[in-house]
User: What shape does this take?
Amino acid sequence: MSKELEPLADPGLPEHIHRKADIDPIAAKRAERQVAILFSLSAVGTLLFIYSFFFIKVDQFIFLPILGNTNAHQLGIGLGMAAGLFFIGIGAVHWAKTLMPDQEVIAQRHEFKSEPEDRDAFVKAAKDGAEAAGLGRRPLIKRTLIGAAALAGLPGVLMLRDTGPLPGKELEKTNWKSGTRLVTDPGDRPIKASDLEVGAVAQVLPELLPGQKRTLEDIGKDAVLLIRLRPAEFQLDEERLSWTHEGIIAFSKICSHMGCAVALYEQTTKHLLCPCHQSTFDVTRAAKVIFGPAARPLPQLAITVDGEGNLIAKQPFTEAVGPSFWERSS
Amino acid sequence: MSARERVAGTVANYVDERTGAAAWMKKNLQKVFPDHWSFMLGEIALYSFVILLLSGTFLTFWFDPSMRTVVYEGSYQPLKEVEMSAAYASTLHISFDVRGGLLMRQIHHWAALIFMAAIVVHLLRVFFTGAFRKPREFNWILGIGLLTLGIVEGFLGYSLPDDLLSGTGLRIAQAIIQALPVVGTYLSFFAFGGAFPGEAFIPRIYTVHILLLPGIFLALITVHLMLVWYQKHTQYPGPGRTEKNVVGYPLMPVYMAKAGGFFFIVFGVTAFLGAVASINPIWLYGPYTPGQISAGSQPDWYMGWLDGLVRMAPPIETHAFGHTISWNILIPGLIIPGILFTGMALYPFIESWITGDKKEHHLLDRPRNVPNRTALGVMALTFTLIALINGGNDIIATHFSLTINQIMWFSRIGIIVLPPLAFVITKRICLSLQRADRELVLHGKETGRLVMLPHGEFIEIHEELTPEKRYTLTQHEQPKAIELVTEDAGGVLNPKGIRAKLQARFSAANAENIAKPTAAEVKELEGGHH
Amino acid sequence: MKFISKYRRHKGALPILIMLALTGLGFTFSAATAAPASNTMSASAKSTLVEEGQTIFLKGCSSCHGLNAEGGAIAPSLIGVGAASVDFQVGTGRMPMQDMSQQAMRKKPVYNDEQVAALAAYVASLAPGPASLTNEQITWERDGNTADGGELFRNNCAMCHNFAGQGGALTQGKYAPTLMGVEPKHIYEAMITGPQSMPVFSDKIITPEEKLSIIKWIKAAESEPNLGGASLGRVGPVTEGLLIWVFGLGLLIGIAVWLTAKAR
Assistant: This one.
């Protein structure tokens, strides 16, 4: 290195400055007292915990600023536990800082690299070992071993086979069939067209057959949102318009993006919003996506009325509901 | 010899005769640890992990990881006789019918948030100070592994109570699995034991959450710490601190008292939060059913940036040959995080390739002295932060009178424009700080005291720095750019071709620094002043 | 009488007088005509109320909603919206609107209860619509069921108003307001009239009894004390994350700085 580029010299570790407690016995005594007080505060905290645990009723409430009307039992044991732990820590640190030696010490580092002889010896030993085993000379053994080891992992994967059934066509099926009545969720009451005013919505599910029980898996596929608009507000093609009934239109409530329940309906704008990722669908245009990450409209359920005037499904969904998957064709 | 000393001696003898531990202990009780607040960040994470183990064990005494339907009969009135899963009902039981149960639930959840936050700031400290350089690359990769597992473990943890919010989170996780090309549907059906939500998933992730992942954590943390121990801690530069030594306090007693005390402090702060601040009030969320949802459904913060990315994704799906690929899920949910985490894990090797630096480093960098790395870190941080903001866009919108659409567009554009901008600005700031350091070393500190010279000129008195301070500001090495060798002396083209060119380009950018003052310059000025 | 004359300039004096006068008038008429139901207002009292409502309407509402409430470029027609709608919109202070922003906000009502009643009577006289209600008619405490209400709330309301009724964001800056501190009758009226962005919840879809349950659940959520400490706004993980970074980690780092600082 040339003389001009030489960096500044290291002046070395600065001299150790003594703390007050090192030179002044009164200060040391004071620090000792402070540590003792901190430890005592911890004990007080633990006592508060014990008291609160046994003597504050679990349904006792206390009004405090910021916290509001808060459960006193929970607060008492919590604060007691917090103080019991916190002050032990603060005390210990204060002790270490003021009374334990604070002279910094220097330890030397050693290079991690082994001595060259050692390294060479190791490499040689490893090589000799491999040589002795004859791995290089007997390729048949090597190849079959690699093959067998790779195969041996397979049972581990295969054994997971029975964790679940094969999907089959499961994702494309729902419980909506031609003629299934729409019933309110919750309540399971059938719905007449006249039950809904313009601007009204209803969360509906397919009616249960006698003896049938509804599972969460069913709800996860069948949930439908019913919305009534003025028929003139629709901008639908002939077919989709025929899927509505007197301005009532039905969509799958399960988001075509990631499966959240899409049910934030804005009556003024006729938009449906998904609260998870803010995909926005235009109800008047068959739930076309107008904002957000969803790529497909919500599937529309064709509806009509039966002889008694109850709303029924005209046909099953014509596409799979919910998020996309590899086998989905459109 | 007092009685106590005799007992201690006997015990030590007993153990040593059987293990020979005394020699090892003697050496390690005097192990030196450098002292700096930023070296405590990893400890916060470690202690939170211990708190998580303790509080988690408590919770398992009552939690019933089952999705079988039960009717709630506990003491929380607004859910009386509501049908729910046993998992949800038992979480309500812990919250309201076990004394201290709610406190423990809240401590567990707060500790998880602190755990993740501490891991992130610890990682940032290691990154910006260059502590990941040789010989610590392996420990850096372990750390990235722990961060990734932490995100998964946290997600599984808050999914267990089977409330409306966590069920929504599971629904989204299931949609991501289902979106995987070719195998997605099958994986989802195997994981959930059939169609979503099924009855299998919560018991399964319970085992993973309380057994498998904590076990892996314990193993990885042990190795992580053993490496720190064995390789000795890095230290900040300063007088007397070199690449060959480590300056600090001995383990016994100072560091033991401080570190031990800090464990109690972290536990105390977590318990305080558990006492005064409500977290994850599952009784308000209600039990999960796929047909319900709450406005403002977000994940915990360490997943929030992923959710923000998913929210801002463009609505693209490919439908071809009877198959669907959901880019709107795969890109933000898997591809971008995959690139980010792989890039992070490989960064030590990338940097060493760029700089051509294969030396061991035990002295930390001051971030300003490595402008490129610092700028890159800030760039990545900006990216994540924008994603995180978008992950809470609905809450931000209602609280700051904005619209979700505005925030979404800000994020969509910002995530492309702002990170590079952050890079440029940070690099400029670093160089300015280097310039300021240079000024400081050469001309001293501005004191603000004005003095009128006899001929009427005003000058400001500059106070010279101490030699210690000067050394601290100038001790670092400044990298030189790698020179591009296109062809060797014999006219043979460099076989590395484009790679060499890239390396030279990056290396040149990395070497862009303000020249630090040399001893000669300082001396010259000193002569001039006096 | 000194006691009464002392309060003659009180700001509540006029409405009280009007009330007394109307009641008196009503009683007189009902006594004179010997009507069986004393609860319903007599025809002429009603018409007085309508006239009064029309006066208020012309002064305060017609500039936007049209002289005959037929609607205008910036405001919808009020024909057929019913008294319930007026009671909700004006009674919660949403109408008259302060500015033509995205959405009318709940604020201190401009008109007092009597004026609201008069306005409602006027709008109801234009065409039939849902009748307004009094808080006494909303017997949620007696007829509601909290747990059922919670189920209904999560199915029908939580998606916009959040799991605890704290409100939430809609598209383009619109929002679902918080339900905390809203009068029971106004909650009920909102469900049957569907104000602004909110859809209508018809009585056949959510029965009147179920609506009372929803109100009971909302009131339970409103009065529920903080079971686990500060509620952090009951908006989910966003505020929790904010607290842990700002307070939790901030405090711990602060302590770490103290811990490693040299003692003097």
